[in-house]
Amino acid sequence: MKIKIINTSRHPLPGYETDSSAGMDIRANIDQPVRLEPLERKVIKTGLFLELPLGYEAQIRPRSGLAAKHGISVLNTPGTIDADYRGEIGVILVNLSQEAFVVEDGERIAQMVIARHERASWVEVEELSQTSRGSGGFGSTGTR
């Protein structure tokens, strides 16, 4: 699949790190380092602009290494970039650790997954079909 992209950053285009990767790493495009204090969140710009085909979205997800090593995550995970959005991609990073973290220019801050999606139309009914689970939720299917 080919996707139109404008790269105003100083960094390479997002890319897959391995042949089997689902997500492409995206990098911070900032003029100076950004310090994230514990529990603080900030939008980090990327210098990337996309034109996605209708029926697709770009999902912005955390990088597992940043999350495991430093407690850095993407706040609205996954963040969605819609096919009609033409603005710069910004990533909402949050520091869930107890120590400050500094985001450097060019640092891989998130991953982007391109995904097909469907549009739903509602059918209002008076009742839903029965299942063995029923209305059980939040751990009702067991602990194994």
From TrEMBL:
Residues 12-142 form the dUTPase-like domain. Its EC number is 3.6.1.23. Pfam families: dUTPase (PF00692). Substrate binds at residues 63-65, 76, 80-82. CDD domains: trimeric_dUTPase (cd07557). It is an enzyme of class 3 (hydrolase). Its cofactor is Mg(2+). It comes from the Bacteria. Gene3D superfamilies: 2.70.40.10. SUPFAM superfamilies: dUTPase-like (SSF51283). It catalyses: dUTP + H2O = dUMP + diphosphate + H(+). Keywords: Hydrolase, Magnesium, Metal-binding, Nucleotide metabolism. Pathway: Pyrimidine metabolism; dUMP biosynthesis; dUMP from dCTP (dUTP route): step 2/2. One of its GO terms (molecular function) is dUTP diphosphatase activity. This enzyme is involved in nucleotide metabolism: it produces dUMP, the immediate precursor of thymidine nucleotides and it decreases the intracellular concentration of dUTP so that uracil cannot be incorporated into DNA. Belongs to the dUTPase family. HAMAP family: dUTPase_bact. This is Deoxyuridine 5'-triphosphate nucleotidohydrolase. It comes from Muriicola jejuensis. The gene is dut.
